[in-house]
Amino acid sequence: MRIGQPRSLQTRQLLVASLFLVAFLALAGYALDRAFLRTARDHLRERLQSYALSLARDGEFARDGTFVVFNTPDARFQRPGSGLYAEVVFPNGHWDSESAQGPRLPPAPLLPARRSRFEGPLAMHEIDGRAGEVYRYGMGLIWSSDDTNKAAEFPYTIYIYEHTDALRDQVTVFRTALWRYLGGAGLLLLLLQGVILRWSLLPMRQVIDELKRVQRGQASRMSEQHPRELEPLTDSINAFIESERENLDRQRNTLADLAHSLKTPLAVIRSKLDDETAQPESLRDEVRLQVQRMNDIVSYQLARAASRGHALFAQPIAIAPHAEQIVTSLEKVYAGKGVICEFELDEDMQFYGEAGDLQELLGNLLENAFKWAKSRVLLTVKPIACADGRRPGLLIAVDDDGPGIPADKVALILQRGVRGDERVQGHGIGLAIVQDLVRAYRGELHVSASAELGGARFEARMPPGP
Fold first, then answer.
1. Cα 276 to the chain's mean position, in Å?
2. Whole-angstrom Cα distance, residue 464 to residue 425?
3. Terminal-residue alpha carbon distance, the chain
4. What is the H or E stretch that residue 379 is in?
5. C-alpha closest to that of 121 among 165, 74, 56
6. C-alpha pair distances (Å), 50 with each of 43, 44, 105, 158
7. 318-330 residue pLDDT tens
8. Of 319, 316, 308, nearest in space to 357 by CA
9. Do residues 132 and 125 make contact, with C-beta atoms less than 8 angstroms apart?
């Protein structure tokens, strides 16, 4: 576990989602703040422009060259230090509104006719000498008292100033409301996010609770009521539980069979020891014979137990090399019959299980076919397609051109006895081992007539994997 890395999936998701949510709200707040500031500046410019146009409409120059305003567009122009100032600059002087008499405003140059300028913040000084800042809008105009006398025309510029406190107050109010609402929305979203994450991870907690119930013995397997994303996990757990349960049952059966098989030789030895008339040489031979028999029984039971156990999540094994090795050995054994084995399989076909299980499966099916075939044996290995995207299943089929098997004898030749030498003789005692192996892999074994060779066809179908 890495240092500082949360161990809880819910904590991880909540932490990452919270970081992204905070980052998103911060970026959204910044964007809204910039947009509002730009809009506020645009509105300020339009308002100052409106004041300038009103002064241009309601003001005129007297004969002595002074600028006279008949009506001010805002009462603040008449109140000293109000924060809204007006100034008219012309070649022979300038005019200031009553509010501009006292503060020291920035220098105001003449602007060319039909030119406007919006700028700021610009430094200025209040009536009491404190430093301040203002926004300024300037509009260049031409005054003419008589349109026929061009010499009487002269340029003049109207400047409107507004203190930055007004815009700053608007921005402050907006920012306070913006971050308050964004912060409240963020807290609400974080809370909602935590509830959603807890609800979405509820199936995981249910899986954990079911696993605990299985561990305590309160349930035998996982239930099937889970979301689609968790079904592969629960199916694998159920398969593992069933596999382990089957392995335990096989071990118990093997021990029971072994104990039952050893009862007879042990009873013989005990009776021989209890016989007071038995000769030492005869006793020694009998004990040697029964010990050898018990050794054979133990070896057989261990081999049978090993052939039936398999790993649920084993690595894939290439089928072709094992098949070729088995067929080569069988062709030597049955060289006198001249049996030929044909393959119908791809080189990349794989078996998911134990190598010993694959050898037992192929060996017993092929040996049975060689035993009863006249001259031909066919081994077919094909994948079984699966529609839900899982690993394809596997079809292993062995055909021969022998006498075949009557339909009413199929169940008999596959019957399993308690011990190997008690199995019904038919196509060989190995068929019962094949039956057990196929069942161990949750597959099916079918016996039918061969359509290609005319004899028997043994077909093992392995189910799709996880």
1. 78
2. 33
3. 28
4. strand 376-384
5. 165
6. 10, 10, 20, 11
7. 999 999 988 888 8
8. 308
9. yes
Alpha helices, H only, 373-414? 410-413
Are the CB atoms for 265 and 293 separated by under 8 Å? yes
Closest CA to 164 of 94, 222, 243, 106: 106
Domains along the chain with CATH numbers = 1-200 (no CATH), 228-308 (no CATH), 316-462 (3.30.565.10)
**Residues 396, 378: Cα–Cα separation, whole Å:** 11
Quickly count: other Cβ atoms within 10 Å of residue 358's Cβ.
23
Q: What is the pLDDT of residues 227-278, one digit of tens each?
A: 777 778 888 888 888 878 777 777 776 676 566 567 666 766 776 677 677 6
Pick from 451, 364, 455: nearest CA to 402: 455
What is the 8-class DSSP label of residue 101?
S
Shortest CA distance to 181 belongs to which of 37, 32, 355, 52? 32
> If we measure between CA atoms, which residue out of 415, 419, 411 comes closest to residue 304?
419
* pTM greater than the 0.70 cutoff: no
> How many residues are recorded in the chain?
466
Maximum Cα–Cα distance across the chain: 164
Distances (CA, A) of 278 to 274, 287, 293: 9, 12, 20
Nearest residue to 293 (alpha-carbon basis) of 271, 311, 267: 267
Q: How far apart are CA 82 and CA 382, in angstroms?
A: 94
d(CA 203, CA 226): 7
The amino acid occupying position 196 is I
Q: How far is it, in rounded angstroms, from Cα 358 to Cα 346? A: 16
